[in-house]
Amino acid sequence: MHPMPEDWDTAVAVVAHPDDLEYGVASAVASWARHGKTVSYLVVTRGEAGIAGMHPDKAAPLRMDEERRSAAVVGVNLVEFLAHPDGLVEYGVPLRRDLAAALRRLQPQVVVTTHFGLTMGDEGPVNHADHRAVGLAVLDACRDAANGWVFPETGPPCTSVRYAYVASMASPTHFLDVTDTIDVGIASLREHRAYLDGLVLQQRAVMVSGVAACSEAGGGPGLVHAVCRGSRAGAG
Ligand SMILES: [Zn+2]
User: Fold this and answer.
1) Phi and psi at residue 161, to the nearest 5°
2) Which residue of 23, 94, 196, 223 has the lowest C-beta tally within 10 Å?
3) What is the Cα gyration radius of the chain?
4) Is the dihedral of CA 201, 39, 217, 134 positive or negative?
5) Which residues of the chain are under the pLDDT cut of 70?
6) Whole-angstrom Cα distance, residue 164 to residue 152?
7) Cβ-proximal residues to 83 (8 Å cutoff; 6+ apart), any chain
8) Is 235 a member of any domain?
9) Which among 157, 135, 137 has a CA at the least distance from the CA of 96?
10) Ligand 1 centre and the CA of 149: distance in Å?
11) Element counts in the chain: helices (H) and strands (E)
12) Is residue 52 part of a domain?
């Protein structure tokens, strides 16, 4: 594996749900923020279908607020929501248009998303349909945003994107040492109080640490958390 390039200043992390970034990526975001980089979050849904027993009308603002607080913990000040329907996100032109428009607005040099393969790991559970739709659309939107003939109504082309990172791949190619910020990443997860209500938060925190330990065992020196770059949809 290779260390992630550091020759950039602005990034946007794009995921389907509030809390998707808090199981590992947030630790990397905290590290980048400490090194003076500006990272913003773009969340495709408002997470309104994510809390059993709580009506979506109540869950949506609550989860958006939790994500904003979580982002603030790792140094992210800008969090945007696209309000696609939680649980029913469709890969397609409307989603690609919304994402391309956001990239044209934000002009990031780095785009981060999460694994969009069919399963989590080679033998894990089926990945969430929203994750599968969003990850693929994010990578396609990077190309769309750079093409002035595609979605011209959303503004001038975005030609700033230099790297697209996909986290939680089964076979990562790049890594970032987050030894110094993994605790901050876990703290950001704790901000999702309502979502995690009824779950064992400590178990979640251990899970984040466990991911780090696995990465360390299989990766380069000092590696605690790995993300990989590219557009390939791996199995994990
Ligand atoms: Zn999710």
Assistant:
1) -70, 125
2) 94
3) 17
4) positive
5) 198-236
6) 22
7) 45, 46
8) no
9) 137
10) 32
11) 7, 8
12) yes
Distance from residue 156's CA to the centre of ligand 1 (Å): 31
Q: Which residue type sits at 188?
A: S
Q: What is the pLDDT of residue 117?
A: 94
Residue 229, pLDDT score? 44
CB 58 within 8 A of CB 10: no
Q: Is residue 49 part of a domain?
A: yes
Rounded distance from Cα 106 to ligand 1 centre (Å): 23
Cα 191-17-93 angle, rounded to 5 deg: 155
Residue 236 lies in a domain: no
Cα–Cα distance measured from residue 125 to residue 187, given in angstroms and rounded to the nearest whole number:
26
Please identify which residue in the block is written with the tokens 């956001």.
102
Q: Is 10 exposed, middle or buried (0-12, 13-18, 19+ CB in 10 A)?
A: middle
Ligand 1 geometric centre to CA of 178 (Å): 22
Q: Per the structure, how many domains does the chain have?
A: 1
- For the domain that residue 53 is a member of, what is the CATH number? 3.40.50.10320
How high is the pLDDT of residue 102?
A: 98
- Measure 17 CA to ligand 1 centroid, in angstroms: 5
Residue where the block lists tokens 């901000």 = 191
Backbone angles phi, psi at 148, to 5 degrees: -65, -15
Give me the domain span that covers residue 215.
Answer: 8-229
Predicted local confidence at residue 122, as pLDDT: 79
Task: Round the average pLDDT of the chain to a whole number and report it.
Answer: 87
Alpha-carbon gap, residue 124 to 116, rounded angstroms:
13
How many angstroms does the Cα of residue 125 sit away from the middle of ligand 1?
Answer: 13
